């Protein structure tokens, strides 16, 4: 936990699910609580991945960690929006019990880890607390009984590329951030860089990491470059100078309003007006 928190990640996900064996969960919960409570200035970025709602551990996880006021909760292995709404009711009660403002605890949802959830990735618009959707390939493979989630060349096979696409589409429909899944090989930073840059082009706004060495690579890939910012500024300024135009000639081609929307979004991501 300390190693992760000392890194450059925007959010540190402290895992009570897959990283903790069933027999060790009771002992892990107070460790997580105490760590978050001991770092009050960092609480906003110290999130907890609880266990899935279809098991026996979720409420115990929440009761243990909510008094420490974590920055947010990750909910894994959902079956659909109803799981988010159930989590919202639990969190609301625990926020009241611990003097936390109601609705103050945001949620990121793993929306493709069960076969059923794949049919509901577009259902999260207006779902309480949800600020991001992400996906997972390993648990999905287990859920459908697949022997592997990879093609012979190492790329994800069709079902898992579909999961990735449904996640970014579902996030767009819900108006929240799409977050790419992990790259398990934390030694291959070049492959990570290439993949992070690709998914950013596809509409993802971040990526999960499993090792501190991955974080700077991911951060760099999702940070607009100076050239991108300059081009976006040029496009925004061009439309501002021609407010009545729906399409404008630019660099030998034509720009229409979707180009303006993308340029404005990039500038917002770069923290520019």
Q: Can you characterise this structure?
A:
The chain is an alpha/beta fold. The chain has two domains: 222 residues, TIM Barrel, CATH 3.20.20; 45 residues, no CATH class. It contains ten helices and nine strands. It has a seven-stranded parallel β-sheet. Helix 2 links the parallel strand 1 and strand 2. The chain is globular. The mean pLDDT is 94.
Please give the alpha-carbon distance between the first and last residues: 36 Å
> What is the spatial order of strands in the main beta sheet?
1-2-3-4-5-6-7
Task: Extract low-pLDDT stretches.
Answer: none
What is the structural class? alpha/beta
Beta-strand portion reads: 5-15%
| Radius of gyration over all CA atoms, rounded | 20 Å
Helix content: 40-55%
The general outline is globular
Describe what is shown at a glance.
Keywords: Lyase, Magnesium, Metal-binding. This protein has helices at 2-5, 25-37, 58-65, 81-97, 138-144, 158-174, 189-202, 214-221, 226-241, 257-269; strands at 12-15, 46-49, 72-75, 107-110, 130-134, 177-180, 206-207, 247-250, 253-256.
Furnish the topology, listing elements before pairings.
Blueprint: H1 2-5, E1 12-15, H2 25-37, E2 46-49, H3 58-65, E3 72-75, H4 81-97, E4 107-110, E5 130-134, H5 138-144, H6 158-174, E6 177-180, H7 189-202, E7 206-207, H8 214-221, H9 226-241, E8 247-250, E9 253-256, H10 257-269
Parallel strand pairs: 1-2, 2-3, 3-4, 4-5, 5-6, 6-7
Antiparallel strand pairs: 8-9
């Amino acid at each position: 936990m300390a190693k992760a928190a000392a890194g450059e990640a925007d959010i540190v996900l402290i895992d009570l699910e897959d990283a903790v064996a069933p027999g060790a969960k009771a002992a892990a919960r107070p460790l997580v609580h105490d760590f978050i409570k001991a770092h009050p200035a960092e609480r906003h970025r110290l999130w907890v991945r609880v266990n899935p709602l279809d098991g026996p551990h979720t409420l115990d996880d929440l009761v243990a960690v909510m008094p420490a006021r974590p920055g947010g909760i990750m909910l894994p292995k959902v079956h659909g929006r109803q799981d988010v709404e159930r989590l919202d009711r639990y969190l609301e009660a625990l926020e009241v019990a611990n003097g936390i403002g109601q609705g103050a605890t945001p949620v990121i949802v793993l929306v493709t880890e069960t076969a059923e959830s794949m049919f509901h990735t577009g259902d999260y618009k207006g779902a309480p607390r949800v600020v991001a959707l992400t996906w997972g390939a390993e648990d999905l493979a287990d859920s459908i009984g697949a022997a592997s989630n990879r093609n012979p060349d190492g790329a994800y096979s069709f079902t898992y590329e579909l999961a990735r696409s449904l996640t970014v589409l579902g996030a767009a429909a819900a108006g929240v951030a799409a977050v790419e899944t992990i790259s398990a090989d934390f030694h291959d930073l070049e492959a990570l860089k290439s993949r992070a840059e690709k998914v950013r082009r596809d509409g993802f706004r971040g990526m999960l990491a499993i090792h501190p060495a991955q974080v700077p690579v991911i951060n760099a890939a999702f940070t607009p470059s100076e050239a991108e910012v300059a081009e976006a500024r040029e496009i925004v300024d061009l439309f501002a100078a021609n407010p009545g135009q729906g399409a404008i000639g630019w660099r030998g081609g034509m720009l229409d309003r979707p180009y303006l929307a993308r340029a404005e979004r990039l500038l917002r991501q770069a923290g520019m007006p």
